[in-house]
Task: structure prediction
Amino acid sequence: MSVLLGAILLMTPLIVGSDPPLYLSDHVAGCLVILVAVTAMAEVVRPVRFLNVALGA
Result:
């Protein structure tokens, strides 16, 4: 679910047509969400998924 949300954030500038400052922040936030979601898929680092809560805030 989080990987899908990150992908949507990466596609937001194409869908909405945002300006360059917001364009860059969408890409950074989307990449971070995907990074945390994929990292949290490992059983050893399962609590890392709560970092997505901080990214969402």
User: Anything to note?
Assistant: Residues 16 and 23 are 10 Å apart (CA to CA). Helices lie at 2-16, 20-39, 51-56. Residues 2-56 form one domain.
